[in-house]
Structure prediction request, 121 residues.
Amino acid sequence: QVQLVESGGGLVQPGGSLRLSCAASRNIFSISTMGWYRQAPGKQRELVATMTSGGNTNYPDSVKGRFTISRDNAKNTVYLQMNSLKPEDTAVYYCYAAIRRTRWSGDDDYWGQGTQVTVSA
Prediction:
């Protein structure tokens, strides 16, 4: 069973920083894209950041310059460094990974359980 386990959410004041981590279980063949999405109350889930296995990144304008995604391929782990946080960043943040479980399988989408990030004074 493939699992994505997230950590690092919490409450932070505006202008503060948080770092999220997400580790995939090790019983897999490979991971292509890893990333983060978020969902605020009453809103659709939206992209926060993605990174391919080759290191290409993608950010929406709303977080560009404030958030940085990185990954440790040896540890099947992706990180999200969030700086200059704003109240509108408040949401549940979900880890995402496109995982190939065996040499002969295709990529399947996996999601973490979500971690709450609250930005408030």
